[in-house]
Amino acid sequence: MNDTVDKLVICLAKRDGIDKLVKTFQYVSKLAHWHVEKTHPDAANRAKQWEVASGLSRKAFRTGRFLTGFNALRRNPGPTTTFRVLAVLSNAGEMVYFFFDHFLWLSRIGVIDAKLARRMSFISAFGESFGYVFFIVSDYIIILDGIKAERRIIKSGDESEDAKENIKRIRGDRVMRLMAVAANLADLIIALADIEPNPFCNHAVTLGISGLVSAWAG
């Protein structure tokens, strides 16, 4: 119990942790608005206000975050040429997403022309989806490499403590990367709803569940 509380405190002490919490508020309120829209209009209106406020506060809180892509590339560009290319493409997409998200936020709060909101939303979402595709590809390759490495250890018949620790590490990394893939796929669906609106991606339930998966898995 204490470990769980400690992890929660550490998570909420970081910008990403707070962003995930507010993202949870945003998409829970979206689902609540959809659920009571016809039966309780007043409650639905409050839920909608909560959703909008959460979304705008997340955008404000992410100010300057596009620079994290540069930092990620500087610290760990990747062990091979393939991963370096994938890292550049994924982080470039994410940097475009966060950079133009600033202008989307400013247009929605009335600081700049509100007519720019749709264009900024499209560019931001396009960069986001572009980046997430390559993040998913990177994780997929590493997961496959981990599976192959685990099979090699098992086939070798090595039952030493080092071998067991390696298998444990590989499996732990696989779980984390599968969670990352789930979060990125969920965010990709949300981005596609902005790029090419359609009945499936833009449905409140699809967006709500995708947002919660992104927040909790991320």
UniProtKB/TrEMBL annotation:
Q: Where are the transmembrane segments?
A: 83-100, 120-143
Membrane-topology descriptor: Multi-pass membrane protein
**Keyword set for this entry?**
Membrane, Peroxisome, Peroxisome biogenesis, Transmembrane, Transmembrane helix
Q: Name one GO molecular function term.
A: identical protein binding
Q: Does the keyword Cell wall biogenesis/degradation apply?
A: no
Q: Which InterPro entries match?
A: PEX11 (IPR008733)
Signal peptide range equals none
The biological processes this protein is annotated with in GO are:
peroxisome fission; regulation of peroxisome size
Which family does the record claim for this protein?
Belongs to the peroxin-11 family.
Query: Subunit arrangement?
Result: Homooligomer. Interacts with ARC5 and FIS1B on peroxisomes.
PANTHER family with a match to the protein in the record: PEROXISOMAL BIOGENESIS FACTOR 11, PEROXISOMAL MEMBRANE PROTEIN 11B
What is the name listed in the Swiss-Prot or TrEMBL entry for this protein? Answer: Peroxisomal membrane protein 11B
Name the lineage. Answer: Eukaryota, Viridiplantae, Streptophyta, Embryophyta, Tracheophyta
